[in-house]
């Protein structure tokens, strides 16, 4: 297994993975430069990305293909994206999730109320349009 930065050529596969996981994919194109993919035998089996807004980032679209879950790949993607965010000057990451609160809490994220979210996050398509209103908001301070 290896990981690398995603390219525009990966968009179709990433979107298909997100679709199978019931995650929004409509706006991946504009953030593809901040996506990472994990491959197994040259097949993309996982992906994830960040949106960067100054010192604040939105962790998004973390997906692992069924059959490859429970192997630490999701955790790997999150850690790689946190490192990428740090290199880009981000010191706080936020995310929206319906079903993976426990997973992210295990990685140091905490639940925050939607009214506590920074305006930069509230302006994203993920927040305004793509994620359900029932999604939980989470925050993590990047410390390196």
From TrEMBL:
GO cellular component: cytoplasm
Annotated GO biological process: L-arginine biosynthetic process
Classification via InterPro entries: Acyl_CoA_acyltransferase, GNAT_dom, NH2A_AcTrfase
Key words of the record: Acyltransferase, Transferase
Superkingdom of the source species: Bacteria
Molecular function in Gene Ontology: L-glutamate N-acetyltransferase activity
PROSITE patterns: GNAT (PS51186)
Domain N-acetyltransferase: 1-126
SUPFAM superfamilies assigned to the protein according to its UniProt record, in alphabetical order: Acyl-CoA N-acyltransferases (Nat)
Protein name: Amino-acid acetyltransferase
Species in which this protein is naturally found: endosymbiont of Galathealinum brachiosum
Lineage of source species: Bacteria, Pseudomonadati, Pseudomonadota, Gammaproteobacteria, sulfur-oxidizing symbionts
């Amino acid at each position: 297994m290896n990981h690398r930065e995603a390219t525009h050529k990966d968009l179709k596969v990433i979107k298909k993975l997100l679709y199978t996981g019931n995650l929004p994919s409509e706006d991946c194109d504009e953030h593809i430069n901040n996506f990472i993919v994990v491959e197994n035998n040259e097949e993309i089996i996982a992906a994830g990305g960040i949106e960067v807004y100054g010192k604040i980032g939105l962790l998004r679209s973390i997906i692992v293909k069924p059959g490859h879950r429970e192997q630490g790949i999701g955790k790997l993607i999150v850690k790689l994206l946190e490192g990428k965010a740090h290199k880009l000057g981000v010191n706080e990451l936020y995310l929206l999730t319906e079903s993976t609160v426990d997973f992210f809490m295990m990685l140091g994220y905490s639940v925050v109320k939607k009214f506590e979210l920074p305006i930069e996050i509230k302006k994203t398509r993920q927040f305004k349009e793509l994620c359900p209103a029932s999604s939980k908001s989470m925050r993590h301070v990047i410390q390196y």
